[in-house]
Write a sequence for this structure.
């Protein structure tokens, strides 16, 4: 069984040839940059017309190994476990992306929090929109997709520790690709101010502060839980620094600066 795309034709091109052309437009400048290994990358999941350049530039600056764990938010569909690990291959217009079966099984077996569950992924777009980029950059790609609901901070910390241990035990390199947009549907000045607060905590590699900042400042960062978990994991894996590749918002495309969504791309090494 394979997961059928839910976002093709909506967030990105459904036609394979048009999608390849779109990726060629979003990736070429960034592909000339020097690539380096990373513990994690953080990328947006808006429609490619709005956030594709940020995602493309961020991913193309990173050495993409054959195995990627995808972490993204469950956008309140009410479906699935809080930490839902897919156990299926995933289809995109560019072909099938196989599940990294042993790694997915090890994550579920090695943690009381992660559960094998496909239902949380049925209508979600946050992880799917990253796959064409990753397929383009790594022809032997295998994935472990994890859809994540809001969790208390102690569970985020434990999930990060569990994730790091599974990655340490894996024989080959593993990259965490974390999918999130930043502040939603507020004027540009407000979005910029709020986003800078959250980005400051990410750049400081401070997951607990990020979690508290988003909560207390009422920042509508949909993927705060996946990012928090990924930062805990990255620190356990020896991460020393984070870099902001690009930050922008949807208003630069839509022309509406009064109701924008923030997009940011970061690399954690």
């Amino acid at each position: 069984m394979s997961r059928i795309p839910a976002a093709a034709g909506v967030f990105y091109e459904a036609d394979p040839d048009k999608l390849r052309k779109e990726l060629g437009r979003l990736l070429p400048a960034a592909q000339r940059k020097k690539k380096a290994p990373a513990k994690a990358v953080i990328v947006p999941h808006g429609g490619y017309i709005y956030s594709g350049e940020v995602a493309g530039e961020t991913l193309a600056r990173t050495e993409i190994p054959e195995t990627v764990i995808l972490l993204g938010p469950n956008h309140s569909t009410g479906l699935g476990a809080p930490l839902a690990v897919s156990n299926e291959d995933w289809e995109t217009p560019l072909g099938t992306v196989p599940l990294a079966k042993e790694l997915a099984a090890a994550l579920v077996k090695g943690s009381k929090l992660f559960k094998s569950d496909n239902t949380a992924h049925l209508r979600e777009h946050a992880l799917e929109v990253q796959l064409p980029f990753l397929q383009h950059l790594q022809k032997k790609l295998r994935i472990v997709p994890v859809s994540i609901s809001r969790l208390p901070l102690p569970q985020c910390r434990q999930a990060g520790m569990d994730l790091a241990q599974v990655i340490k035990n894996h024989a080959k390199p593993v990259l965490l690709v974390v999918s999130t947009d930043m502040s939603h549907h507020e004027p540009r000045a407000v979005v910029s101010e709020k986003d800078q607060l959250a980005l400051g905590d990410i750049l400081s590699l401070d997951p607990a502060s990020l979690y508290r900042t988003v909560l207390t400042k009422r920042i509508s960062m949909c993927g705060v839980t996946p990012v928090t978990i990924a930062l805990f994991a990255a620190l356990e894996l020896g991460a020393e620094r984070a870099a902001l590749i690009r930050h922008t918002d949807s208003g630069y495309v839509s022309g509406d600066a009064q109701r924008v969504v923030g997009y940011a791309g970061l690399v954690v090494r």
User: Anything to note?
Assistant: Residues 2-268 form a domain with the Protocatechuate 4,5-dioxygenase; Chain B fold (CATH 3.40.830.10). The mean pLDDT is 96.
